[in-house]
Structures are given as C-alpha cells and as structure tokens.
Amino acid sequence: MPQNEPTVEIRQFLGLRNTERPARMPAGSLVQARNIDIDDAGAIERRAGYQPVPGLSGVTAAYATKDDRRLFVVAGGALQEVVSLDPLATRHLAGGFGAGEVWWSEGGGYVFCSGAGRGVVSGSRFSTLEEFGDTSIEERALDAILLDESTDVGTSPPPPDTECVAFFQGSVWLSYYDSVENQSFLFWSKPFFWSRWDLGKDYMPVPGRVLLLAIFNEGLFIGTDQGMWFYTEGLLQRVADHGVVPGQPSYDQGKLYFWTPRGLCRFLPLEYLTEKAVSLPPGTRASVGVVRERGYRRAIVLTTGESEADNPYE
Q: Any idea what the Cα angle at residue 191 is, between residues 207 and 147, rounded to 5°?
C-alpha cells in the first residue's frame, strides 16, 4: 500500500449494507456476506454447516410446531408427520394435496392446515384427522369437542376454496378471496365446534387479498397485499398501508416476525428491522424462523419466486 494511502481501522463489522453508495457507508459495512456469523460485538466467524437428510422428495410444504416437538410435511401429495429424522421415519396422515400453497396454524393441541386443493384438515394431539365437512367423526380425539353430526344447529360446513387459516378465540378462522371485488372475507367456526359454520353471520370483510393470519396476544394480525390490520375486541384497526409477502411468520419473546417488501418486520409495535440497512428481493412467498444455536439468536428468511428489491442503491 502506498504510504500516502489512508487507512481505516475497523473495530466491528456491521453486516450487509446496500441502501447507500459504498463511499458513504460506515466502516465495517459489507457488500457481500456468505456463510458467516456476526455477533452483537461485530466479530465475524465462519458459520457452521449442515448435513442434508435424504429420503424426503417432492416436498411442497412443511410446518414445525411452536414447541419444536412435531414436524409435518406435504410430500408427493400426502400430508405426513416426521416421526424421526435419524433414521428418517414418517407417518402418513392424509392424501389428496396438490402442489399449491398450504397455510398452517395450531391451538389447543391441534394443528390445522388449509389450501392446496384439500380443504381444511385438523391433526389432533393423538395424530387422528378429520376433514371438516365430512360426515364422519374420529371419536378417540374429537367427540369430546365437536358436535355430534345428528345435532341440528342450523350451520353448514366451512366455505370452499379458502386459503389462510388461524385458530383464534376457540374458533378456526379461514380467509376467502373474491377476485371480482378484490376483497377477502374472514369466516370463523363456532367456538370449539370446528365443523360448524354460520356463513351468513360469522364473517368479516377485509380489503385486498389476505396473505397472512397470525395470532398475537388477544388479537388477530391480518396481512394483505394492500396493508396490515389488527383485529381485537371486535375492532379492525389498520396498522400499515403496505402489504406483506405471503408465507409463514414466527414468534419469539412475545413478538411476531414476518417478511414484507420492505424487509423483516416485528410486531407489536410495528418495527422495520432491516429496511434502513439492506434491501433484498422479497420473493413471492417467504417463511420466517427465529432460531437459537451456538449462542446466536437469528432470524432466518426462506424466500422463493422472482422479484425486485424495494430500494437498493444502484
């Protein structure tokens, strides 16, 4: 290096930065970062690798429960529970799934999934299943909760062609998108009677297409292609005027993490965690996970689909 060349001492690394031209970025900013970990003090170390687990092919959807004790996958058109990873062992739960989107939710010891042309399926804590709208009841797990089919309460099966699913206040909530009017309807079942629905009464319109439903404290977070909403105590309040990327959110330390065209967000209150530092292509679908490993707590975002970054410096 020439003697008159200025030197810069880097005391810590700040991670990726691409929203300003490189000459204006603070020392320690990175324009590329691959397979590294950066701790809170700005120190860098090589990230540990992972070993792939062979055996599952044709996976189109997956979900791990919040306690990390159960893992479900849709592979080859079938819903399966992964019983063991080493050696790999799965349990078949239901068939007839397409390759489309699948939405997941859990509550009361049950896991619910919707979409992919299959309707709504609930997996109980005993790994028994019922497809809502069917005339059969799986007695071992569900007869203590669901109404007997002979009971006439003037209700109907859930609406067809639903998308997002959530378990909120003892009811299953489903979103239905009306493409003609460009609005969604949220329908909810009778509390704890998940095969019974009053489609003429128990629903709520939401502008745009619902892409994300998530339970937060005593409310329901609703992300659409046009904005974000929070439903609590019977009131629907607008949180933001821009939408979200469809996919699966994550919970950590009482906060909700999800992905948007403006990067990683956290709720409540609404915070933009990455917008000022780095702009990345949001993809057309994203899954967010907050994981702890080797002393690190990190948010991992898995995206798919081609898209343009919102505001990178070019």
A: 130
Nearest to 92 by CA among 77, 75, 79: 79
Encode pLDDT of 261-281 as tens digits: 999 999 989 999 999 888 889
DSSP, collapsed to helix, strand or coil, labels residue 111 as strand
Torsion from C-alpha of 166, 189, 91, 127, nearest 10 degrees? 110
Residues 6+ apart with CB under 8 A from 209: 177, 182, 184, 224, 225, 226
In this structure, what token pair is assigned to residue 63?
A: 């979900």
| Measured distance CA(166)–CA(106) in Å, rounded | 7
pLDDT tens for each residue of 200-233: 999 999 999 999 999 988 899 999 999 999 999 9
CA–CA distance, 201 with 26 (Å, rounded to integer): 57
The dotted CATH code for 56-244 is 2.130.10.10
* Nearest alpha-carbon partner for 279 in 243, 312, 305, 244: 312
Q: Where are the domains of the chain?
A: 56-244
Q: Looking at residue 135, what is its pLDDT?
A: 34
